[in-house]
User: Which sequence fits this backbone?
């Protein structure tokens, strides 16, 4: 679980092109790390496109955007291509990074419980 004021848990995950991205190698950079449940779904697409549309501002500020979901690199590649996403989408297939960051949680839909990435958008 992430604690304020503590170093972020390190990880290495493959992006949509299969390239390995290691968080600790980005030390000294501003990183926007966002977690989302699934590629090409309405809420996740809206969020990714908001980052895409503001990408120039993030880049100008020196920030690196990294999206993380349990989907695999192939799914990420299709999603990134379809919506022209100019940033890395990382494949957390075993959900270990999502667990380390405290976003892999029990959820409920229509009375059925299941595990998934907790999706919380600011209002």
Assistant:
């Amino acid at each position: 679980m992430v604690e304020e004021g503590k170093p972020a848990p390190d990880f290495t995950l493959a992006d949509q092109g299969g390239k390995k991205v290691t968080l600790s190698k980005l030390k000294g950079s501003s990183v926007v790390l966002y977690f989302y449940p699934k590629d090409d779904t309405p809420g996740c697409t809206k969020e990714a496109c908001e980052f895409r549309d503001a990408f120039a501002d993030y880049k100008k500020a020196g920030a690196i955007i990294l999206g993380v979901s349990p989907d695999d690199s192939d799914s990420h590649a299709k999603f990134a291509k379809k919506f022209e996403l100019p940033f890395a989408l990382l494949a957390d297939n075993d959900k270990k990074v999502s667990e380390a960051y405290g976003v892999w949680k029990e959820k409920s839909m229509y009375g059925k419980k299941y595990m998934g990435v907790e999706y919380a958008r600011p209002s």
Summary: The first strand starts at residue 12 and ends at 14. The mean pLDDT is 91. The helical segments are 42-53, 55-60, 73-82, 96-100.
